[in-house]
Amino acid sequence: AQSVAQPEDQVNVAEGNPLTVKCTYSVSGNPYLFWYVQYPNRGLQFLLKYITGDNLVKGSYGFEAEFNKSQTSFHLKKPSALVSDSALYFCAVRDPNYGGSQGNLIFGKGTKLSVKP
Amino acid sequence: DVKVTQSSRYLVKRTGEKVFLECVQDMDHENMFWYRQDPGLGLRLIYFSYDVKMKEKGDIPEGYSVSREKKERFSLILESASTNQTSMYLCASSLYSGLGTLAKNIQYFGAGTRLSVL
Hints:
Chain A is mainly beta. Chain A has no helices and twelve strands. Chain A has strands spanning 3-5, 10-14, 19-21, 24-26, 32-38, 44-50, 56-58, 64-68, 73-78, 87-94, 105-107, 111-116. The termini of chain A are far apart. Chain B is mainly β. In chain B, the strands form two sheets. In chain B, strands 2, 4, 5, 6, 9, 10 and 11 form a seven-stranded mixed β-sheet that branches. A four-stranded antiparallel β-sheet of chain B has the order 1-3-8-7, with no helix packed on it. Chain B is globular, with a radius of gyration of 14 Å. The A-B interface holds A 9, 32, 34, 36, 41-46, 49, 51-52, 90, 94, 99-105, 107-110 and B 4, 31, 33, 35, 40-45, 48, 50, 56, 58, 90, 92, 94-99, 102-112.
């Protein structure tokens, strides 16, 4: 079965420190992987995606993620965290066998990132 | 910029009421989606549509129906609201992703409707 896991419900980081939000996946084919962010009382906003090519993907707001096929992971990273990065982060994988070409995503349960001054 | 607009930010309804949640997108996207978001459960797909008058069930369609009469509008209907349907509802849209092409699968989300069923 296709799935995506975010093993940490919450990540706490001090401002200025590097941050990592973890994501692992399980799909039958080659995955398309996404990160979304949700600020309080807002919808989800797209951060970055991996489709093919370079394993290191750079996205919005200084975030990046590395696709690691052997570890089936797609961890989100940022070299220096900001208080304004505090939000809920969702990893998502496109299931190529569900809905055919319709682009349906499977979302993780979310990780709350808290950046303290 | 893509804009996905959900008609209500907050709704309070009573058990047994018929509830309509409306979503409109302005980018001519083929695909539209309805999710519900619950703490600890992430986003779960209720229904999606890839064309006018077309719909497919997602993971949790029970108790819901949808309507897509126009390309830009996708409605979620709770035929008889129940307390366990109290949740945040998110609408999203995306471009069609054809086989053999780079999938344009970025989903653009509305701000959400927080529904309380009393």
